[in-house]
Amino acid sequence: MESCAVLQDACGDIAKIQQQQTPAAATPATASSLPFASHMAQLVVGSVQVTLRVLKMNGSTLIFLGTTDAERVDEFAMAMPSRPPSKQIVSTTFLGESGQSDSLVLANKLAMRYGRQFYVSFNLQMDAVTRAQFEAALVSYMQKNLEMFV
Amino acid sequence: MSVFETKNDKCGFHKQFAVDINGNNTEFVFHEFENKWMLLITQLGKLPAFYNVAFDVKRDHRVLPFTHGPVDDPEFHVSVPVTMTCCMGVDSDEIRGGIQFLINKTAINKCPSELLIALGLKKIESEDLRAIAKVLENGIF
């Protein structure tokens, strides 16, 4: 408990640091002991400036998308692949409007593309053209920085 | 033309760290959004359930008597009144009790808006909850 003050300053890969200090053979990492990793990026698509916050967990990824000046959480959705042999995606909106929310649509696409559970909070007002541009650019960014997402 | 700029690749949230709580690696993630606080606490490597917590009374009246802080004596104990909604995942009395404990014992009850919280513990025991409350007080608030 005394190490809390130190830990709060070094935000980020604390567990990774602890793992590096421990011999790997002595304590094999289990799925639940792998550290979370997060990052933030500023994305500019046309005139829209978007803040992207990502938390990579074990088997799932959480993504927040909001405007840079006002980061809100108005919607939240989750999508994940069904158990094999089914190739369907199971998804739900659990915060905000029910039905086909923007968060749900994006979560579905990401879960389908990467075969992984995605939590998405999409809090942007965009027209169809800008949205399509943004999604293409987001996927491009994810491909370039894949290790930060999956 | 789209332009991407990675501003900070170390930490995407106000606080994110891992601490050993009674032998279990426990991940903490905290972020203040404009309309919500988000707090994720898990020992499972994933998020088992999401709860949305709305505070029933104004911030200055949540802990009685306000000037002296929370009352720890069981005989005079007053919980912070909240409305808890399970948004996703398993809804259990144990998790609700754990969240209420953390709200009572930490500065979570100073949240100016609603709270989105995930609490994934391998075992919900008072010893673990007290340790988590201490980590929250020292490491986040």
Automatic annotation (TrEMBL), chain A:
GO terms for biological process: proteasome assembly. It comes from the Eukaryota. It holds the Pfam family PAC4. This is Proteasome assembly chaperone 3. It comes from Drosophila mojavensis (Fruit fly). The lineage of its organism: Eukaryota, Metazoa, Ecdysozoa, Arthropoda, Hexapoda. The gene is Dmoj\GI19974.
TrEMBL record, chain B:
One of its GO terms (biological process) is proteasome assembly. Pfam families: PAC3. InterPro entries: Proteasome_assmbl_chp_3, Psm_Assembly_Chaperone. It comes from the Eukaryota. PANTHER family: PROTEASOME ASSEMBLY CHAPERONE 3. This is Uncharacterized protein. It comes from Drosophila mojavensis. The gene is Dmoj\GI18035.
